[in-house]
Amino acid sequence: MKQALSKRKRAVLEVMSKPKAPSEIRKQIGLRRGNNISSTIKELLSLNLIYCLNPKARTGKLYGLTIKGRSFRNKAGIYNYSQPNNINWNLYGWIVCGKQKKAILRAMIRLMPLKYIRERAKEYSPKVSRTNANDILQLFVGKRIAMKMRQGCRVLFKLTKTGQRIREQLIKP
């Protein structure tokens, strides 16, 4: 690479093991909440090392590595970049931009009632309320991330294939 990269740009490229939102990148490189990562991302975009997977999104933008960015990581001895093609990146970005949505999705492992989903989600985000969990699950059903099923008088929720793919990508380091 002809141009030397700053420490921050290098750090961003090194933590990019999968497509990530700016907040995830900032957290992984150890910057405080007030530190702005957007200028570094803009510079990496202009250098063609990263690209936006969902450019029309207002929130939950995701950035992945270009071939040039992957080459940089390979030269640094980091080979673990993963970006599957079968994921709806707009939905993934929508989920990643909300702590409680991420917590609910991580909590869903099989056909489960709301009560158990909420209990498991509290391990990831303690502020998940019953009402909030229900609202998020209804949004998931509307966006076809989850299905709502009846078993007698109980209402159960289960991830669709799309939801399972997003969850798998979400739990990867």
Describe the fold and architecture.
- There is one protein chain.
- This protein has a 3-stranded antiparallel sheet. Strands 1-2 form a two-stranded antiparallel sheet.
- Strand 4 and strand 5 (154-159) form a beta hairpin.
- The protein has 9 helices and 5 strands.
- The protein is mainly alpha-helical.
- The chain has helices spanning 7-15, 22-29, 38-46, 67-75, 89-96, 99-107, 114-121, 130-142, 161-171, and strands at 50-52, 63-65, 112-113, 146-151, 154-159.
- Helix content is 49%, strand content 12%.
- Helix 1 (7-15) packs across helix 2 (22-29), helix 6 (99-107) packs across helix 7 (114-121) and helix 7 (114-121) packs across helix 8.
Instruction: Name the poorly predicted regions.
Output: none
- Rg from alpha-carbon coordinates: 18 Å
Strand content: 5-15%
Mean pLDDT: 90
Q: What is the string of helix and strand elements?
A: HHHEEHHHEHHEEH
Overall body shape: elongated
Tally the beta strands: 5
The number of helical runs is 9
Straight-line N-to-C gap: 27 Å
Helix content: 40-55%
| Biggest pleated-sheet summary | 3 strands, antiparallel
Class of secondary structure makeup: mainly alpha
Strand order of the largest sheet: 3-5-4
